Amino acid sequence: KKKMKMKNDEQNQQPTPTTKEDETTTKTEHTCTPPPPPKTCPYLSFVNRPLLDFDFEKRCSVSFAKENCYCCLTCGHFFAGRGPKTPAYTHALERENHFVFMHLENGRAFCLPDNYEIFDASLEDVRKVLFPRFTSEEIKRLEKEAIWSKALDGTEYLVGVVGLNRVENAKGVNSIVQSLARVEKLRAHFLSASLIRSDGNNNNKNENDTLQSLCQRIWNKHNFRGHTSPDSFVRKLRKQIKLAHPEKLETDIDNLFNDPFATLRHFLTFVVPKKYVDELFRGELLMLNQKNKTQPFVFVPLKLPDAPLFRDVMEKNAIPQVALAELLKPFALKTAPEYLILAFVNRFSKNQFTKEVSKNPTIITFPVKNLKIQASSAAGSNSNSNPFSYDLLANVDSAGKATVKHVDGNWYETNDLFVNEVLAQQVTLGETYVQIYKRVASP
Q: Is the pTM of this model over 0.85?
């Protein structure tokens, strides 16, 4: 009887086997797992596209940090971070319905403060504005036909000829950017290259402060508005000059970017890749009035005749005129570049004593098509070799307005934000300062 009692006690003391359901219930009692993110974000309706502007410097509006910066897609402001106590996290808590944020370097979208990633195709149009992309077929199409697009406010704009905001003390930048955007090979290089580059930590950095990014925004058909701004690009140029030349004053930098010719020289020296400067613009000039001396060049400097000091018979100051062919007579092309840049260097002159800047009002008459420049082989002999022939692509006047030829053959006058179509006969009416020609086959 004692042995039977011992066996029964041992059986009662053995633990009961637990099932899998019991194990899961015990685990959930001790560990609390967060709920899974929703399949669709319920706050996408609060995205306000008219307030989104990615043209300016990508910097946090609170901490001024550039790294790990996000854009609030409701108000359009930039904030750093995504975790607790960061400006973006705090903004999502303080503002009503400001929950959707997009990373400015890789385009990933998140919902804060819940901190889950949003995968939705409705945000692709925002990414196309933030990261313009061009396929080889799209680039070929842009070079052949004029494409019209519509902004969010319903206005139509011509892709490739959009207005540019004028940055303070940099009126020469817009005209030179519009002119260089007509150079086909340089434009194709900028459009085909990617704006996103990867560093060693698998992080992508979006560079929107370069001439390449500005050119891509000009030719982007997905823009939310019919104009763009070179603000971040000009800021970077000014910063580079101050780092390279700390002794330069702000007034000197202002004078540099207010003058279209000085801006062009700076672009060809420091901004445009040297490979394309040598391939597209560099040539060799034969100086006929200096014993046939040869001179390499990127642009041809031409001097205007001095303005008359006295009035004419009618007691009026007559505006002198000179033909471009007369100014080119002392020169011959030994090596003809594909794109010829002419600059009238004495359009503005500065008095050394009074420091006043005076303008030469001479009007230059020039052909829009088939500008003839003699070749060096025909300059020193009696042979009838064909001269080089050039067609005008862009004309910048002394006021900073650029008249450019679009791919469809029409001419457009760009004056900062204003773009107007003009006739080819109106191109020659202004006081020409800088010109860009393209070499064509001689007829």
A: no
